[in-house]
Amino acid sequence: MDLAISSDSIIPRQSLTSAVADKLRDQIIRGEIPEGAQLRQEAIATQYQVSRVPVREALRQLDAEGLISIVPNRGAIVPALSPADIEELFAIRALLEPEVLKRSIPHLTRENFFDAESVLHKYVDELRREDHVSAWGRLNWQFHSILYSRANQPRFMGIIRNVNNSGERYTRLQLYLTHGMARANEEHHHILELCRKRDVSAACDLLQQHIVHAGESLKLALQQKRSSTKSDSVTGNSGAES
Fold this sequence. Notes:
This protein has 242 residues and is mainly α. The protein contains nine helices and three strands, in the order αβααββαααααα.
């Protein structure tokens, strides 16, 4: 499937690679570039009126993020989301992150709580803007990592960071497809408050529920989306939800 890109404006020249990556990332997250689509460098460069160099670098960046796959002899492809991958990534998070939080809470400082709350304020602002979807996963990780930062478990944190990097696409998709912003905000604030109270058990239980729900809701949203797309394809309706 070839890519048909729509863009409202020419990309500004602040950082062409980042700008191209941001545009493509948002379109992939929103489903405007569907699973299986082939991203052609020439078409992207023409659409955004840039050379192929920043396009090539942007595709490499998205490949590193797990949003696309660069396949020999085929180029850049948007891979299908795997329910098995979703289940595995969120299961790993639900096992590891509460354990790290448990070790971190007793040592969190006022500065940590202030930093975490500052990130939440930014997060709330960004979640209101769907055109800033690329920031959602980054801010989500920043918030969680601050709360885990006093665990003094560098190997644990390295594993969790890698899992979150691999799952950032899923985090953004979960929020976008399920419209789960309100619940995410409420649970983040509640987790932070429990950490402030040093209620280790309640904070870790809520964190685990938070992660498990995110994984389950994303799987359900994807199943519903694919079912709707197949139904529209059978009936010949080209206005399928994206």
